[in-house]
Amino acid sequence: MDLNKKICYCFNVTVGDIKKEVETGSTTLAEIQTETKAGTACKGCVKRIQETIDALLAE
Ligand code: FES
């Protein structure tokens, strides 16, 4: 997975940022949103965040 791929444009959150959170135990969409703010503005990236979490957990 490309860790530099941008997932949330509003808050400049990348796959790598989400990976860091998943590795420290934040595995739900709500937790990722709390930790990174990703998906809390335009919400256009919410589906991408969930897909990224799912892919990281499947690794
Ligand atoms: S792109 Fe993530 S909240 Fe807008």
UniProtKB/TrEMBL annotation:
It holds the Pfam family Fer2_BFD. It comes from the Bacteria. Residues 7-54 form the BFD-like [2Fe-2S]-binding domain. InterPro entries: BFD-like_2Fe2S-bd_dom (IPR007419), BFD-like_2Fe2S-bd_dom_sf (IPR041854). This is BFD-like [2Fe-2S]-binding domain-containing protein. It comes from Turicibacter faecis.
